[in-house]
Amino acid sequence: MSGYYNNWSVSDMDKYVKVPLSDEDARSLKSGDYVYLTGTIYTARDAAHKRMQEVLDRGETLPIGMKNNVIYYMGPSPAREGRPIGSAGPTTASRMDKYAPGLLDLGLKGMIGKGKRSQAVRDAIVRNGAVYFAAVGGAGALLSRAITSSEVIAYDDLGTEAIRKLTVKDFPAIVVIDAEGNNLYETAVKEYNEE
């Protein structure tokens, strides 16, 4: 194994971060960091993004402000009794790629999903000092434990794709693309291939 893995430990890369994300916190995060988010994030998937774009195209105000906020690409399953939300795993981020640059330019500071992002999104992340996080796919039941409250705040008619305001405590994620454009999906492959 290369020295890449010998130069750090998991605890060296653990970061506890408040959300919404400050500009300073967003810029301090590095590709590969393990992050635990605490505070408020919002959910939105394909249908909600499409509707937000239509709102912007009409020159109207979005139902949520973008400034320093984090959007989690997730549509939850129904909540079980006594829980604020059901399974809450990430969806494929590339489905939001045509909308993300515009939202980043409006101040969106972070996105949580799974999978790769387009070059246009990566450029917008760098341009705006933002961050793309990955949450572990297939771990929705575990991720839901970090969600302490869930409230639909817009587009209720979209069902699971409505925009929700979530309160999270130590929500686990990994920084994939940092504010400098470093991309874990690329550097990890490069490191692996150099072994």
From TrEMBL:
GO MF assignments: hydro-lyase activity
Keyword Nuclease: no
Keywords for this protein: Lyase
Fe-S hydro-lyase tartrate dehydratase beta-type catalytic domain: residues covered: 15-187
Matches recorded under Gene3D superfamilies: Fe-S hydro-lyase, tartrate dehydratase beta-type, catalytic domain (3.20.130.10)
One Pfam family linked to the record: Fumerase_C
Database matches in InterPro entries: Fe-S_hydro-lyase_TtdB-typ_cat, Fe-S_hydroAse_TtdB_cat_sf
Record-linked PANTHER family: L(+)-TARTRATE DEHYDRATASE SUBUNIT BETA, L(+)-TARTRATE DEHYDRATASE SUBUNIT BETA-RELATED
Family assignment from sequence similarity: Belongs to the class-I fumarase family.
Protein's name according to its UniProt entry: Fe-S-containing hydro-lyase
